[in-house]
Amino acid sequence: MNNISPRKNDKKKSFSRRQFVNLTSGSIGGLMLSENVYPFFSGAKKSSSIVKDNFQSEGESIIGPIGDWFVNLNENKLPQYSFRRKEWTDLQKWRESARNRLQERMAIPDLGGIPKVTVTKEYIYDGLHIEELSWQLPYGRPTEAILLKPANANKPLPGIVAFHDHGGLKYFGKRKITCTSDHIHCIIEAHQKSDYDNTAWANEIAKKDYVVLVSDGFPFESRRVMLKDVPEELRNGLNDNNLEDSEYIIKYDKWAGDYETIMAKSLFSAGTTWPGVFFAEDRIALDILCAREDVDNKRIGCGGLSGGGMRTVFMGGLDPRIKCAVCVGFMTTWKDFVINKSFTHTWMTFVPLLPNELDFPEILGLRVPLPTLVLNDADDDLYTYSEMTQADKILKEVYQKADAGNNYKCSFYPGPHKFDKLMQTEAFNWFDKWLKQ
What's the pLDDT tens digit per position in 48-80? Predict the structure, then answer.
């Protein structure tokens, strides 16, 4: 099977999205799932017979009639650290208190200072100066990253931390939103076609005079779980294969999706959380970007689709160095997860006990009054439309209470889960507006 296909003048066989879906078909609990893949469901598919976009019938939820009772635990009261509560009148005191509580709940591990960064390769491609970087964290294999900037750049530029998505694809990370040669793996080609309108969006924003850093999140690509590192009885008969064979990659990603439950249990047992580990590693990437001489560290943004949008929520909410944030395809409420959509999402999303203290959009709202853009797809199967609009309402209230209403915007686009060219245009214009003033 051919695994690498040219992006330009492609005449070789490559995977279509439908072919990829067919190859990654599977079952959950013996239930055969139908055709559409949820990006956070590694190898699993939606069954239109049991899943609806909105659950509005009495007692209808993914956990049955007890769903209403669970929702009612917080339904009629504002979370403890919600800025919408009347007692929170001082923005700075609220933000400090709420951020401290969020960090406690996330149990963010200490990874130390900025690690030594190695430039493993440097070249020019597509009008961009590209550096392939790596650094060693206190655990695991080295983190690999791609840095992109205009080839003719001669002064410090604004920086962007670009977060790759989840997509059920753990064999790949940074490569999902970049392009560094005329040849691209057929799985990446299909992914960029379906989710990014056939573009590598990190390249495109770099061309607009930004220094863009894309690192592998945990556990993707260079940070993925290697089969040789886990007990043989947990490998499902697989072994490590780094030959980029497509059929192997599909099997690995299915295995890695199932393995998330084991990893999440281990992280909780270690006294941390997956969002905490994500944030700790992403903050190291932000440290590295801000320390570069070719970056204006007073003008830093971050953004991403889906799992990248989730990472934007936590990074944008917690780190004030992020002057501009763009969250794409990851905005709803905890209520939506409780009764509608938790099954469409990875373990990487959840922070125990936090819903008592902040609703999900209020995590991103911790950055108020700093500029924030949320881009949603109206037909996104990962969320219900009603709760996406409720999340927008919550963020509007937060920004309006802080007298910063003009610094927040939310747009809905037709279609399914994606970050297409129209959405990219709005995102890039938003970065330009706030980072190039």
Answer: 322 334 433 334 788 888 888 888 887 778 999
